[in-house]
Amino acid sequence: MPWFSLRPRDPADPRWPLPHSPSVTVQAADAREARARAAEAYPSTPFGTPASPVPDGTASIHHDPDAIVVEEAGPPATVPGGAAR
């Protein structure tokens, strides 16, 4: 199964759920599944927007398909569980 790197199109996007990490790497069958896995593992529910001032999830980066760039990548330097590659 291939690895995919996901990152915000705009590095300053405040909706990115990992502010101290410029990207996340997940293993998935395809880019669509990679997006779904990232959304499940790293939910992004900012506290409100002018249109919706409650944390209802409508402002999530995962609801904006153009906000996240998905690229096929190699495996990360470390894999879940802390084992080095």
Write the layout of secondary structure elements.
Elements: E1 3-8, E2 24-27, H1 31-41, E3 68-73
Antiparallel strand pairs: 1-2, 1-3
Structure, explained:
- The relative contact order is 0.26.
- The model has no long low-confidence stretch (mean pLDDT 81).
- The chain has 85 residues and is of the alpha+beta class.
- It is built from 1 helix and 3 strands.
- The longest helix is centred in the middle third of the chain and has 11 residues, at 31-41.
- The protein has one helix spanning 31-41, and strands spanning 3-8, 24-27, 68-73.
- The protein has one domain.
- It is 13% helix and 19% strand.
- Residues 1-65 are annotated as: Disordered.
Using only CA atoms, what is the Rg? 14 Å
How many individual domains? 1
Helix-and-strand structural type: alpha+beta
Beta strand count: 3
Arithmetic mean of pLDDT: 81
Q: Uncertain regions: pLDDT < 50 for 5+ in a row?
A: none
Please state how the strands of the largest beta sheet are arranged side by side. Answer: 2-1-3
Distance between the amino and carboxyl termini: 16 Å
How would you characterize the largest beta sheet? 3 strands, antiparallel
Instruction: List the secondary-structure elements in sequence, H or E.
Output: EEHE
The tally of helices reads 1
Percent of residues in helical segments? 10-25%
Shape by Cα distribution: globular
SS strand fraction = 15-25%
